[in-house]
Amino acid sequence: MGSDNATKKMSRRELLLAARTPSIDVGSYETPADEVPIPPANAQVLPTACEYCIVGCGYKAYVWPYNQVGGGKASENALHADFPVSVASGKWVSPNMHNVVRRNGELHHVVIVPDGETAVNRKGNHSVRGGTLGLKPYNPRRPTADRLQVPLVRVRGMLQPVSWDDVTTILADVSKHVIQKHGEAAWGIKYYSYQFWENTYAVTKFAYGAIGTPAGAEHDKPTAVNDAVGLDDSGVDGFSSSYSDWRDADVVYISGVDPYENQTILFTEWMAPGGARVIFVNPRKSPTAAYAERTGGIHLQVWPGTDSVLNNAVARYIVEQGWEDSDFIARKMATRAEIESEKGQWRRLRFGMTFQEYKSFLLADDAYTLAKAAEITRIPAEKIKLAAEMLAKPRGRLRPKASFMLEKGNYWSFNFPNSASLTALGLVCGAAGPVRSSHGPAAINAG
Amino acid sequence: MHRRHILALAASSLAVGVAVEQAAAQSPVGTRIDPAVYPEKRVAKLSELEVGVPLAFTYPLENHPNLFFRLGGEALRGVGPHKDVVAFSALCTHMGGNLTGRYRHDVKALGPCPFHFSTFDLRKGGMPVHASATQNLPQVLLRLDGDDIIAIGVLGLIYGQRNNLADARPAPGVRPGRPDGPRIMRS
Q1: Choosing from B2, B5, B64, B116, which is the catalytic residue?
Q2: Is the Cβ of A76 closer than 8 Å to some Cβ of chain B?
Q3: Among A240, A345, A392, B103, which is least packed by CB within 10 angstroms?
Q4: Domain limits at A319?
Q5: Domain count of chain A?
Q6: What gap in Å lies between CA A92 and CA A107, rounded to an integer?
Q7: Do A349 and A203 belong together in one domain?
Q8: What pTM was estimated for this model as a whole?
Q9: Rounded CA gap, B16 and A187, in Å?
Q10: What is the mean pLDDT of residues B53-62?
Q11: Residue A126 at interface with chain B, using a CB cutoff of 8 Å
């Protein structure tokens, strides 16, 4: 129990141990460690995944008693690594991957290191987030000291610590009362959406299954609705594209997201090594913008809030040139009759377009001419034109393989127009997540 | 600059020791120097360092490439009359990419790393400024002896190591450090 963990007195043996090794107190970042314990060959190994972003990198946690340490030969440690480990081996344990925790009251070392044998972060690559997973386990001598250890209930205006049994009973009784008196819809829950599966699965099962309430809201939303509405309405699953799409792409259009910062492994392990030229749509001139410009791509420094004009202007130039993926459009895009049959899907009925209708829509609005769009988005017309050429200008008989990525910089302002215009641009270029287009699969992805 | 923590290494295979030739030669029983205390090495002359031109040296072990920088402006833990002489490990603390040849004098930064673009600010103790790396670039601690610059320790674990003084031979030219000099700091 947390309270037990927080208040447990050290045994005499542990006191001696701690006195002999005062450096388990590593709260200061001014004196970084220059020695890290590595797991002995018999350390417990717990395969896990990073809990931070949707890329889902593999990690291994090693746990072992505090008074043991692995040796520098491969046979003497659980990493099966000879020290010093070689460059790019993915076997190094940085001090930020290490922590000291209590398990069943006893001090243990834990290190959480990238698992280079998994399919995502191959060769042990890691982001700044995954590389510090080891700092998260509770340690009262580190910044985790302020972590809530016990449930708190407000009694007479004061938060009071209570046991898990008590708080569970209170929650159950109050829930029963609310449901009996007011019905399931009166019982609501707001929850995050990360720490995938273990927690999210339990919460959703609880809310929508056991209780049966419609009043649940995850992540960033006020209720259980779509994230990137235009993406969903267009029939694209935002999380379905393969990482190989990013590796194999000729060009990637990145809107309102900085994958070096936020999906680091997707960028450093797949996108950058694949050599795709980057069209980086972002108001900020970040290091990724510099990367784009130095590797044959461009930075479209869009004025905030004008993304849909930019996307539509690029799309208009493409259809004006006749560079759309006609084969893909003929095989996969909805007809008017198909759109009309969308019973209950009011947004698809109201805003859905066939390709011809979409083309007419683009050509009818002067805002989407290069000159006018340049004025609105504050991006030079030549750059908008260049983006269209990079995305769709055929090279002989082949189309460039273009993939598209959007995130909250795109869809947290003008969600529907921004996400719908980006998805429409992607579909015109034959990118549709898992759907095979005329030049092989390409991705549209929400980050 | 010297760390106050004085640590006994756990009784473990970590205490393999670093055989320093000179110490071994002086000792009748082939004594190994204290594996918790950094050796020293004369690495350059202050008058030979040019502003903006990095200089390479190895320390404390032979597999540890480092770079000297005369930044032309005051830096954290800098030595010399302008406190602008600093030295750092040349190995990126993300996955060990070699940063030699990647000094940007205009911003006093080392990087981006050829592997995954990590970049470090040399004025601020090698702090990552755009990085997959989670740790500062290990800073080589320096002492001046007249015109001689002497490396006396390292702040931070060097890529590839589990201990900055274990598992490899010492760099050429190192001598035992002072007993009160910088020591190994455990995680």
Answers
A1: B116
A2: yes
A3: A345
A4: 229-428
A5: 3
A6: 23
A7: no
A8: 0.85
A9: 62
A10: 96
A11: yes
| Candidates B2, B134, B139, B152, partner chain A, best to mutate (most A CBs within 10 A) | B134
Q: Tell me which of A146, A165, A198 is where a domain ends.
A: A146
Query: H or E element: which one contains A428?
Result: helix A415-428
CA distance A60 to chain B (A): 17
Look at B163 and A128 and tell me if their CB atoms are within 8 Å: no
The minimal CB distance from A126 to the residues B14, B119, B132 is found for: B132
Q: What's the longest Cα–Cα distance across chain A?
A: 81
Query: Cβ of B19 under 8 Å from any chain A Cβ?
Result: no
Closest CA to B160 of A91, A84, A115: A84
Using a CB-CB cut-off of 8 Å, the residues of chain B touching A84 are: 63, 160-162, 167-168
B105 is catalytic: no
- Whether residue A1 lies inside any domain: the answer is no
Specify whether B94 is catalytic: yes
CA atoms within 13 A on the CB side of B49: 27
Least confident range of A78-87, A211-220, A356-365: A211-220
Q: How many CB atoms lie within 10 A of CB B178?
A: 13
Q: Which of B5, B64, B94, B130 is catalytic?
A: B94
Collect all residues of chain A within an 8 Å Cβ-Cβ radius of residue B12.
68-69, 71
With a CB cutoff of 8 Å and minimum separation 6, the contacts of A132 are A96, A97, B134
Contact between A270 and A246 under an 8 Å Cβ cutoff? The reply is yes
Give the H/E segment covering residue A338. helix A336-340
* Residues A241/A437, Cβ–Cβ less than 8 Å: no
Q: Using CA of residue B99, residue B101, residue B102, residue B107, what is the dihedral sign?
A: positive
Q: Which residue of chain A has the CA closest to B3?
A: A31
Q: Say if residue A46 is in the same domain as residue A24.
A: yes
Residue pair A402/A252 in contact by the 8 Å Cβ criterion: yes
Same domain, A82 and A51: yes
Omega within 30 of 0 (cis) for the link into A39 = no
Residue A153 lies in a domain: no
- pLDDT per residue as tens digits for the range A170-229: 999 999 999 999 999 999 999 887 666 677 888 889 999 999 999 998 887 888 877 788
ipTM: 0.84
Distance, CA of A95 to CA of A111 (rounded, Å): 9
